[in-house]
Structures are given as C-alpha cells and as structure tokens.
# Entry
Amino acid sequence: MWTINRYPGFWLLPALLPVILMTVYPIGHALWTSLHEVMILFPGEPFVGLRNYERVMSGSYFGVALRNSLVFTLIAAPSVVIIGTLMALFLQRRFLGSQVVRSVVLLPWVLPGAISAVLWVWVFHPSFGFLNGLMLDLGLISSPIGWLTNPRTALGAVIVAHVWTQIPFAVVLMMAALSAINGEVLEAAVIDARSPFQRFRYIVWPEIKSMVVVLLVYNALTAFTSYDIVYAMTGGGPGTATTLLSFQIWRESFSMYDFGAGSAVAFIVVLISALLIVAITKALPSDLFAGSE
Amino acid sequence: MASIDIENIHKSFGKVEVVHDVSLSIADRELVVFVGPSGCGKSTLLRMIAGLEDITAGQLRIGGKVMNTVPAADRGIAMVFQSYALYPHMTVAENMGFALKMTGVGRAEIEDKVREAARILQLEALLERKPGQLSGGQRQRVAIGRAITRSPDVFLFDEPLSNLDADLRAQMRVEIARLRDELQTTMIYVTHDQVEAMTLADRIVILNDGRIEQEGTPLDLYQKPANRFVAGFLGQPKMNFVPVTAAADGVRVGADGPLLPARPLQGIATGTQLELGIRPDAITLGEAGGLPARIVLVERLGGSSLVHMRVAGIETMLTAEVAGIYPEASNRDIHLSIDPDRVHVFDANGRAI
# Structure
C-alpha cells in the first residue's frame, strides 16, 4: 500500500528535490572542483587533493582578505542587530508621524546594492561628500578626509554602508518579535518593575532572544560573504584595505580562471561560516533549536 | 489603610471622552465590583487606578495620597489580568517572586512569600513549572498568587475569570471569595458577569457609557434599581419591560389596553407615558384571574422553568420564572397575575418612580 511508513523517501521528494538540486548538488560540485585542477586554459581535470587549498592559503592575499572579512563581520553583524533592535523598540511606540518614519526606515531595503554604494560614495566623497561638508561646517576637521582612499578609514566606511543596507530587515523582524509579546504581559511588567531597563532585561529580552540569534547568524553570514556594495565602493582598495574573502573567490575563479582554487576559497568561507553559526548559538543560548517543551 | 478616592475623573482618547466625570469612594478592605456592558469604561477606570492609563482630568488618591502621576509600580497595587499575563519564560515561582526581586527583596524572603502564596492557592506542586505547562485554572491561580506575594494595599482584578469555562469559573469565584476573607485587603473587581458581581461584591458600581448609573449593595441594586438600565442589567432572566400609560385606576397598556397592577402612582398625571419593569419571578401563572396570556415557549431548566408568553396588547413577550418543572405546553391559554409590590415604574427618561 501507499503508506507514508513504507515509502518515506518518496513522500519527502517534493521537499527534498529542490534542496538536492539547489543546495546539495552545487556544494558537492564545488567540493569536487576544489579537489581537482579545473582551469579553462588547460584541458583535463586531474585530482590534486588539498593542493588548491595550500596554494590559496599560502599567499599573503588570503591572510589580508580573511582578516578584513572577520573584522567586517565582527563589527557589522552586531551593529546591525543592536541598531535594528533599538530602532524597532523606538518604532513600536506610537507618535505623530510614526507611520511615515516606519516607511522611511525601510527605504534602504528597496535600493539595489550598487545604488546604495553610489549613494555612500557620495556621502564619503573627499571634495563633494556630505560627511566632510558637515564636519567642516561643524569645525570638527580642518581639511577634508579621503574616507574611501585612506587605508585607515576605508574599511570603516564600507562597514557603515553595509550596516545601513541591512538595518531594515533587522527592524522588520525585530518589530515582528516585539509585537508577538502579549500586551498584558508588558502591562503586568509595568506594575511589577518600575525601571524600563529592568522590564527590557527580564521580560522583553527573553522573548526576543531567539530572534536576536536568528538575526545575528543571518547578518554574520551576510557580512562574511558580502561583495557587491564593497566592490562598488572601493574595489577592495586602497591597496588591500577593503579586500574581502569573497573577492578572492572571484579573483581566483574569474580573473585567473582557476576554478579549483576559487572553489577552495569558497569552501573555506563555508567552513568559517559554520564555525560562526556554532559560536553565536553557543554564546547566546536560546531554546530556538531545542524545540518546545 | 488603603481607601481609594476617585474625584471627578475624566478620560479621553484623542477627542473621544470615554469616562465622564466619575467620582467614587472605596473604603479600606471593601470589595467593589465595576460592572457594565462592553465599552462602558469599567476597564478603563480600573486601568487608570492601576496606572496603566493616564488620567485626563480629576484626582485619584490611594490611601489618601494623590496618585495621578505616580508610576504603576509605586502605587501599592497588584493586578490580575484577563489573559493571566504570566511571564512565559519564568517558572511559577519566578513569576510570583518577580515583583519582589525587582524591588531588591532578599532571596530568602522572596522564597517565604512565594511559599506562603503557593500554600494559600494550593500551588506548591507546580512551583517549578512554566506557564505553558499549566491549565487555564492553574494559570489564573498563579496570576492571583503573583498578586498576593506583593502584599499590595489594593488588588485589581480585570475580568479574571472570563477566559475560564463555566465550571472552573464557578469554582474560582468561590476561591476568590474565600481569598478575600483571608487577605482582608481592598479589592476592585471588573466584570461583565452579573453573577460574579452579585456574589462577590460588598458594593456594585454599575457603569454605562462612561458614567456611573448606580452604586450600592447587590441586593439594593436588585431590589431598588434607580433606572431602567440598572433594572435591565441586573437579574437573570432579565426584567420584563412593558410600555404603559398612567390611568386613574393603575396603568394601561396602550390607550385602552389591559389594566396592569402597579403601586399607587402619586403625582403622575393621567395619560403620562411610563414603562413597567416586572421581574420574571414576580409573575404567577394560574387558570383564572389576572391577564389572559398564551404560552409561546417553555424552557425547563430543572430547578425552575422559564415560561415565555404573549399578552394581547403587549408587543414584547413576557417571561415568567416558575419554580420546578412547569407542565404546560406551548400554545395553551393561561392567566397571569403580577405582584403589584414588586412592579417597578420608570418615567420617559428611564428614571425609577
């Protein structure tokens, strides 16, 4: 008979097929590629073991890109979550024009990465930029700063732009998490605890912790694999100041046409991402993955 | 001492005023029930006392101190909500001890108070459970326990039994009455259920459309309603209302309809439009005498029966409550008589005469 017990795999096919086609197969193929010498200019795809990995990790490019990517991720992801949470807490309140502000906050979401990049290039532009203009007017600096051309400020500048593009999503998810809290529970807390900080710490935080973990994981991955906005703003420069690991994947694969090496970097990114996820979920224990009691 | 004085309180949301000039004094250790239909302002009034809503105008004093701008946490109140409002991630014990923990009370003292409240409410076995693992009745007991541990001057209940099924509601009602005797604290209890109001209250405040219609002891309100609204609101089954005209020898339905008995009406001109209010248990049914009527439907409840009848000249059906199981069937003609001493008379504005 056609029972679920006898043919479990068959009944799972509608869900499994897309996963196999779109996730398992590409990753498997990338793993296979990273272990072979796959170059457009040379026919044949001989097995080379871990030699691709050795090669991409031995150059100085990898060290710089890894360091930049980690710094980028460790600053960007928490910033997005913290700012997003604060904005969501603020936007929960009803005030004159709150509907308008809620819509405006979502604006960065609808802009393509390249457009956001152009926008932020103009904010940071040394001669015509908004930021320099403002700081000069306020007397904070005496001469313009080349935010994107100075190796010391370039990474910070692209992080700001990246965070700006990611905040709307965090705000939307966080507002959803906040609105899921029973209103009478919050009122009971108002009667039980005088300080708003205590209420956040003991009542609101436990309720939104799962969402914070989700957002942190999501943003860590987004930041660690970020490409478009940084490439459009600085191209990885000045020098290698904003070069990220994602750039090396592109460089090995499409500039040097060494797909084996490109896949090796991609696989390293996957491994580090997995480590980041584990670290975040360990650091912020929540019942997110434990299932309900 | 925790008396509550409400003086000329108003509440507006934007341009809409929902509580109009309400004044009320509640004595120490009194249990006052606010009752009224949905949207009458009873919950809003309670929430203003709790500090969950701003007071638009007027003054609120608890224990003689003006509380208008005092934060809810500092008013010496504890509130039990309709949805229980337990903190979902805390155990029963943590829920009950939370307010004390927030005010810096030591762990040992919190444990004592929680254990004492758990004993009163028979929650000892559930202290380590989370709210999600409790039944509705258990959750409501925890919510009450959470209020008890604070040792408040005033307990506020906002329709605490509305989410429970009928059985549990009756059981919790008894429990709250018992608790009230044990705690001897001022309590305000909001409900739309008149049985809760009648059984629990020292004094009932009936609200309608943001105003107090009448206040008094349950039996006072039942026996001497000040107006048509109160008369219709209290009492189950509802009071019968019959539009009548004052006549020289009593009141008549319509211009020359059947004559209905009523108390002697002094100072009422013949021809004045009035309304009679007759409680279902003030009607007796018989084979002769009184008004002829035809039975439309009989509802037999076991202990008593409700007999719905039509009387010639009276547009609405009349309902009589008869003890025991009423044997007669529908469409039978009978005669009803009304106890004149138990008939309420209301003028055109609904005021009792």
Notes: The CA atoms of residues 178 and 211 of chain A lie 10 Å apart.
